Amino acid sequence: MEFVKDSQTIQETRLKYDEDLSKFLAEKADGDKKRRKEIDENYLLSNAAYAAATYLLALGDRHLENLMVCDDGKFFHLDFGFIFGK
Length: 86
Description:
The chain is mainly alpha-helical. Helix content is 51%, strand content 12%. It is built from four helices and three strands, in the order E-H-H-H-E-E-H.
């Protein structure tokens, strides 16, 4: 088990930011356009990689409490017990 500092579930961001993840990402950039571009790129690339990987590996049990995003925009999955348990 590993603790990932400065991250929260997608479910938490939806509740806190009126179901608008872009508000979360904008807040983390704090008005810095260069930082916002970096955060958006991190989110886009990490989300695309995980989408492809979960599709190719046919991973199940994916819901908004198993998906997390860091303050730097990196998106990741957690809780693979369902998959490894089979």
